[in-house]
Amino acid sequence: MSAPGGGPRPFPPAALGWSIWGLGALLYLVGFYQRVAPAVITDRLMTEFSLGAAALGNLSAFYFYSYAAMQIPTGVLADRWGPRRLLVGGAAVATLGTAVFAAAPTLAWANGGRLLIGASVAVAFVSMLKLATRWFHARHFVLASGLALATGILGAVLAGVPLRILVEAFGWRAVMWGSAALTGLLCAAIWLRVRDDPAQMGYASHAPGHAGPGGAHRSVGHDIAHVFGYRNTWLLLLTPFGVAGAMLTFGGLWGVPYLSQVYGLGKKEAAAITSAMLVAWAVGGPLLGALSQRMGRRKPLYVGTTAVALAGWCLIAFLPPLPLPALVALLLVLGFVSGSLIIGFAFTKESVPLHLAGTASGICNMGPLLGGAVLQPVVGLVLDARWNGALEAGARIYDAGAWQAGFVVMTACIAASLVLVSLTRETHCRQAM
Question: Domains in the chain and their CATH numbers?
């Protein structure tokens, strides 16, 4: 690969690489915003669609159903078609899904909108990782993964207090219409700016041999079977089900009503606490990923942080309600250690050959989403089973015992995560050949 003058082509400027990666990151931000948004409008949704906790959990989880289902196809398509087309298509469908949700006359339409949103933004994370392998040096992959989580969490923060303020001022439907318009603008920007590989702009690629979308025409089934032939794939797929699933369940849906109903906080105050927890998650991702890189090992830190997460959720699930300052401090710790999810992505990528990195990343990313998809409605079912009949403005009110029973389910899943991550094989931060 050479420049017009005969010399080797230079690698792309860092600013160019980060700007292209950043547009993909913005779609991931949109995805996290949509993932968490129901948490601060639970009262509005319960009242408007006459929902109990189980039905509300299912409405929120429709996002996760389609998101998780799309991960393997997204990974394969990122390897074969390239991330640009996936990001453009995803942003376009996300615009449509948000509009459907905003206009939904019935619960079925709202569920359909959430289903479209989840399926569309599912392409963002794997596409970002694929862009990172081509636009950045390999040593920056963990940093890019950590910043990806941080960008996503920023979207979750926007779906906290800022969203609640906008909803109180304009109504949730108007805010969702605005969200659809902004996502449409992002779709246009991705189409105009993003390119799959630096070679398409005259630069050298950081993934030699990949000048654009496509590659060897292996069958999709072959790629998936090959990835699942590695033991770590299975273990690292299932490990985040508990830890990240608990974060998505508490921070993404049930944290705000829990803090409002058990601690008597207003919706904005409760949203601020869950947003702070998600910010700690964003901070923990890159810091724990960098620490793992510095250690030259993945497994010890992943096991240790999972153990801390288990201990913390046990305190919430099995002790009487903690004093609010102690609970807030504990939630921040739980958010931080849950950032070890980023270690799992690097761990998975290193466990398979590089040409299967997109497929493996997609499979790994199913774990946390499956956790959210299962735990959000299951916690809702437990809440409804423990409901004593109390209502406020048409929304159900649950006592502390009901909430803790729901959190026991999350704690049990984290215990299983600890067992699974303990069985992984160390990669020593080296890419499999």
Answer: 14-422 (1.20.1250.20)
